[in-house]
What we know:
By secondary structure, this protein is of the alpha/beta class. The protein contains 13 helices and 8 strands. Strand 7 (about 210), helix 12 (about 215-225) and strand 8 (about 230-235) form a beta-alpha-beta unit. It is globular and about 55 Å long.
Amino acid sequence: MRIGLFATCLGDTLFPEAVKSTAVLLARLGHDVVFPPGQTCCGQMHVNTGYQREPVPLVRNFADQFGDASIDAVVMPSGSCAGSVRHQHEIVAERYGDAALRAGVATVKAKTYELSEFLVDVLDVDDVGAYFPHRVTYHPTCHSLRMLRVGDKPLKLLRAVDSIDLVELPEADSCCGFGGTFAVKNAETSTAMLQDKMRNIATTGADVCTAGDSSCLMHIGGGLSRIRSGTRTLHLAQILSATRTSPYVPTEAVR
């Protein structure tokens, strides 16, 4: 397949390794990965904050960049951005777009996937040949869980990883407290939710907490580093891209 890779804003600016790992993984599975150079923000943060007219140019650009018929699928290491493309873009196009935008959005929506659902649902793959000899716990992010309904697909992929020690996270489906501007506008509530999440992570004794969204990992990772927990955060793509011949080499953990 010819796969269009969407980097996302956080992937582009703060977590490029998650994007690179996605490309490495998909290429290892035998697919042609392309990166449309004109891609920008998907507009999720605008819509989430209540500005639905403003992201029209971003939605149009996304449809233009990934609407090429030669691109069989659009894949991104983010449940929240995939959720935006599949649900919010249609809302924006219907309310503020023209017929061309609505058609473009419908075309791209039909072939857009978050990484884990693409691997399991489209490629029908559970075992991607990964090797990760570390103790890991998994946090299901809100958009992937509630908007995309990826279910246990990330866990299916993790269970098949060679030498992994996968530990269940208590109260896993509880929000980490990030929620974009929610963490700024409701800082005290966000911090309390984060503390609950970190407390549950601590009970697992995990070396790594993984998830499918860099935004949640940024929030959780920041909290874990401040309390010097010794648990690092790592995107799911980075675990799945690691192999015996090209293993993940962690930097020194903060303790």
